[in-house]
Amino acid sequence: MAAIGGNTAGPGDAVVNVYINHEKKFAFVEMRSVEEASNAMALDGIIFEGAPVKVRRPSDYNPSLAATLGPSQPSPNLNLAAVGLSPGSAGGLEGPDRIFVGGLPYYFTEVQIRELLESFGPLRGFDLVKDRETGNSKGYAFCVYQDLSVTDIACAALNGIKMGDKTLTVRRANQGATQPRPEQENILQHAQQQIALQRLILQPQGVPTKVVCLTQALSEDDLRDDEEYEDIVEDMKQEGGKHGVLVNVVIPRPNPNGEPLPGVGKVFLEYSDVEGSRKAQAAMNGRKFGENQVIAVFYPENKFAQGEYDA
């Protein structure tokens, strides 16, 4: 409250009393003035210890009566950026810009879903709905973007996309879809490219073999310098060795005369058994090496043995 300039009743603490129910994970916070209580509503969606906090009125809140006592909306002059919130987007996961994301495969993690949604920009709020008994995903979520102008772009790009055995339904939670404006098309195109990459990362990666292929890990320029190439090989040996016994590491290099060679930009890790390759594929798929987000897939052992790196 102090950081956003919400303590408007004078010096001192705006909070008079706090009751916390640890078992049910909620709290009641009493403020010293009506105006400060309304300002506190602007903190909805603030990240606290890694999780977004929902700030709501009590269930017995009477808007008509409250309006006679003082301001019922937060001050428009609050410095929400001081606590990582976006001015003008108060309301967290409420309001007309809230997006419903349905048809999510149940095995998708929160991290994977957030990465998919953040192809369009950072989120102000995100909530993956889970079963209260099991804690498992129910297959749908809600989100709000920090930049509200990308709301319709995200809906248009994500709606109808197939993910695993499911088809996504993505729309504004409170109304029908709106088509993105022409000036938003470049953002839409870039985001669709990111989504295509995410789909590859999230799909099951074939029948396990002893060989894991990392694609999009390296560029040709990374491989031209001899010393840099040796460093890359050593790094890959160390990284790959964390998951099992490595038999071989192959990183094809570009032809000095400029002719294209198969497999350039890929890294091949051969393990002594499938258990090691399974662990490596699961650990490396979707990870970032430098600026590159890697896709890890199993590679046919016969092709690898014959030096065929273009599959």
Automatic annotation (TrEMBL):
Biological source species: Durio zibethinus
GO cellular component: spliceosomal complex
Gene Ontology BP annotations: mRNA processing; RNA splicing
Gene Ontology molecular functions: RNA binding
InterPro entries: Nucleotide-bd_a/b_plait_sf, RBD_domain_sf, RRM_dom, U2AF_lg
Positions of transmembrane segments: none
Signal peptide: none
Task performed by this protein: Necessary for the splicing of pre-mRNA.
UniProt record similarity statement: Belongs to the splicing factor SR family.
Protein name: Splicing factor U2af large subunit
Gene3D superfamilies xref list: 3.30.70.330
Gene, per the UniProt record: LOC111317166
Pfam families reported in the protein's UniProt record: RRM_1 (PF00076)
